[in-house]
């Protein structure tokens, strides 16, 4: 127990013990978690709640006193991330979620505050460009392709009769058929999209993220801790989200205003145009520039303190900025709708400059972000991982675990005596300064993920524009189509996919060789002679060989990001150099080059449309089918675990509800009973358990034992989010809680060892569990034992042993001395 632990408010109940179970990705029911069909919700609501068995509702306060076994409780949070099929629409916000993910991927650097702030600023600016890109794509579809080109072309308007009132030819010069008024009507679509994003962000925050965390004493800002997750205000970002929501909403409305107003202003600047309207056009441009500067200023100012629970809200900014831009948009539509005799729609709206500027700005932002991340990683690598000054305590001291199990944890796997497993801790991992090799992409994970976010935004916007253009135009060529840059970006998609296919083929070949090598290890681990059952051996070997593919994710992300960045730069250069589509740009050259360019353009366009439809369909299925939800669940749950710090329109953060729930439950129970508490987390539940433990007061944290199994806390979070789940943070957590044990399997593609440096490692990771428990039929397992992988850790006898070990260490506090007692 750490120093300064306080006595509970009530007399301790000797023997009182609580096991708080937290499930992982995919969710489950309280009946399955507790192993009892009769369960009772003791606290919470339909979204997230704590359940107990019906017989254990008053286990601590009943007439029989505390039971001689731990009372299990199940915290069920699956409704925070899954529900009805309409939530599949959240997948349309994937680029926003990905760029928000990049914000938390910065390398650790406590002493370089300015670089850390610059990193966050660049990610927020990248997120702002994504909002502008999405709204600009909506403007391209509604204003340019539909209202300007299709409604202005007789052949296209005749095929789509619902555009008749906007068509000069079909309405015979009706009032709404003037170019500026057509644009004003079409502006309702991107404006409604912007308002919808604002509404969803506001509504989801109130539903999921408005729960206040446990009140704690503020931290001193000059005293940084091992992780920001321990700060009192980390899981309450109301002020920051509100500021960013106002800024991004204003940016979307300004984008619509610019799309409507610039076309009218360009007409007024022609020789012989009305001087008054020309002056109004310049005033409009000045107002748009001023509004854009105000939005960028709000985004650049973070405006949040995590060292305390920040309940403040910049009400004047949150209300006035969107309302001001909405008024400006209204004035712009009035200005554009003013009668201008002789103004006719021709060609297409000036969208090439807009999309080209956005793509160039995103590329420069990502490159600057990469430079900052490299500097932060270099500083962290030069400082090295400081040796942990832990107490060196072992969870076996005073425990009930088997000595041979603990000896195996120190020696390595049972299969490879005297060595550590390939996927487990190694001697080099424990040396100070060597943990930097565990950081994904050498600290460039954030810039790589930000690149993918920008690429996703470009693909989605270009795909929608291209599909709508094809639908409006049909088989004819009466429309000019979307801007050339969007077509060039579609042309490079087949090349990116080709690079990925080559990489996947190489990884598959390496996995096949690894599976062949694992056959001998499987036979040695289970003591199989004469070859055993080839089918059984091959199944186990393939599971062991495929599990480490998760560790190849940085390679996949890095190659995708680099190829996307280079080919995207080529698309920008091609569009700027030719101003035409790739097929037309190669006219007059060799027929093979011309045919290849046309094929790449057509194939890329169809791949974008097909991918978009599959994306929405798969997302809807994921919310109805549990197996599909588990397939993509881990990536989605990692993305929505983090608060919305870079983009307010990202899907809601479920941890801002789940972590306060767990923290309140643990703190109140330990303070009222003084009993023993073990929080047991599987998969993503182990990450929630660790985050909740960091939020406890030191005296409460010292009363908690942590049991994790199938945990990605180091394998995914430690590598991709080193500033928050790095070795220093995990070592500090291990020292603060009473004890921590971790279980994993070599066949688990998600969970893995914690790999703490120094003396902390052997006290946390147990030797890898056997999977399956038996190779063939035995008296204890007369039927073939299943291969479990990432699931059902509680079926292994090691789980009960480790739980008993933790409860054996967590002794109840002594009863407080009565006043006047000697």
Automatic annotation (TrEMBL):
Extent of Low complexity compositional bias? 383-393, 406-419
Keywords from the UniProt entry = Membrane, Transmembrane, Transmembrane helix
Q: Does the keyword Chloroplast apply?
A: no
Residues annotated as coiled-coil are none
Report whether Membrane shows up as a keyword of the record. Answer: yes
Q: Which residues cross the membrane?
A: 118-138, 183-201, 246-264, 279-300, 321-338, 358-376, 439-465, 485-507, 555-579, 599-619
Map out region (Disordered) in residue numbers: 383-438
> What is the protein name stated in its UniProt record?
Integral membrane protein
The organism encoding this protein is Streptomyces longwoodensis
Q: What is the lineage of its organism?
A: Bacteria, Bacillati, Actinomycetota, Actinomycetes, Kitasatosporales
